[in-house]
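This section describes the prediction task in plain terms. A model, or a person checking by hand, is given the sequence of a single protein chain and must write out its three-dimensional structure as a string of C-alpha cells. No templates, partner chains or ligands are provided. The sample shown here is typical of the held-out split.
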Amino acid sequence: MASQSIESFTPLPRGVEDFTAEWLTRALAVRYPGAVVTSCHIGTVISGTATKVRLLLDYNAAGHAHGLPPTMWAKGGFIEHAHTYYESFAVEASFFRDWAPHLPINIPKAYFAALEEGVQGVVLMEDLLARNASFGNATKPLTLDQQAQTLTMLARLHAQWWESPRLHELESFSVKWAAADRVVMRMLEPAYFESAVALAVPDRRADRPDACS
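The expected answer:
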C-alpha cells in the first residue's frame, strides 16, 4: 500500500453510513488506479464484535477493467465497544494488508485494508457468496475430504513460514491479546465458563456423564 498514504482515505469509517461512493473510490484507488465507484448501496449488516456490511457497487469503465466485483463486504468496528476492542480490528486489517497477499492458502481476497492504530481497522473483502462458498457450522461435522483439504492448507502455510525470520516481527499470541483487553485469553480461562453465558447452558448439556466416553 505504499503507493498511497493513509491520509488519502482517513479518517476510516466509524459507522455504516460512512461508506460512500466517494470514500470507497479513494480506498480502492490504492490497488486499482483509475477505478471510480459511481454508486454504493448498503445491503445486509451483520452486527457483532466486528460489524460486517455488504456493499452493492457500480463502477466506471476502469473499475470494470480491473475486475472489481459488484458486491463486497466491509468489516471493522462500526458499533460502540470498549476502546480496547479496536486493537483487534487494527490487527485484522494489518493481517490482510501485510500478510495475506503472501499466503499460499485459500482465504478471502482483500481489495483494501488499512488501520488507524488503536482507533480502527477496516477491510474490504471478497463476497464469498459470489463464488458459492459454503460456511462452517459447529453442529455439522466436516467430511473426510474437507478435513483433508484443511490439513493440506495448514501444511502449506507452515511450510512457507517454517523458521522464517519474518516471524520475529510478530508478537506472541498472549502478548498481543493482552493488549486487546485479553478478550480471547479470557475466553480460554476456566473462570469464563462460570460466567452468565456459560450458566445459560442447560445442566444436561453442561456436564454430560458420557462426555469423556
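For orientation: Residues 144-161 form the longest helix (18 residues).
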